[in-house]
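INTERNAL AUDIT FORM
Audit reference: QA-55
Scope: verify that the stored structure record matches its stored sequence.
Auditor: D.O.
Record contents follow.
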Amino acid sequence: MKNQVLITGATGNTGGHAVKYLLEQGVPVRALVHKLDGRSDALVALGVEVVLGDLSDLESVSAAMKDISSAFFVYPITQPGIIEATAYFAQAAAENGVAHIVNLSQFGAHRHVRSHGAQNHWIAERVFERSGVPVTQLRPTLFAEWFLYQSTMISSQRKFFLPFGDARYAPIATEDIGRVVAAILAEPAPHAGKSYDLFGPKILNMAEIAAIFSEQLESTVTYVPIDTDTFVGIVKTAMNAGPYFLQHVTSLGQDLKEGRAAGMNDLVETLTGQKPMEISEFIHKNKAAFA
């Protein structure tokens, strides 16, 4: 089944949405998962072919690539290893004649950036570009899902705590990124060799986002600016995060303050035919987590 698409991260947010939209278009999907559990069972129930593998193991990645036409690569920013995993993925794609890769990078990826994670994403982009397999690089700004990390504090204290100062950016929902991934994988040829910066529909600062939370939850929600060390403590507790991710979030606040995540375009709508989700809609869809 050579027109089958491989999705990594299919049990997560972006990959899961990509699977949904590919299936709606009638595109056969194979999902590479690192664990068989209820989430993988749910994919099987949808008609997805599930294979067990590990992005850090070349043989299992290569096996997952057999008879695949195009593939989506995503690697968690929370842990190191992206460069090695990218090299394995690119090599396996080349060996198996995969015609296209969609790589989920990030808007902050750059040669000269504080975050080791963001710099490694930039290196991963270069590895894919040199692999000989046509690639599309996706570089979204910060996910709207960042606010879910503080859902407990929003629900209990009606406050969220971030080291972003007065930074302004356009948060994007993973549902919209997944829709972009699916649109490209369904018809990849026009997107070969291109990089797309992806943004939500509106540039906002934290006070404006707090006002939207207040309106949606019908209760005053306050943004509390904090220093980086305090934020690292919150992330470490909430996510049991290790040094690699903590270094990334330490750098993120400063990059945001300097405008590195600012930007705006209409690419989500251009690529998918649908405008990206407003932060108000995102909060409404996740109201149970914040209420």
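Auditor finding: record pair retrieved intact. The two ends are 45 Å apart (CA to CA).
Action required: none
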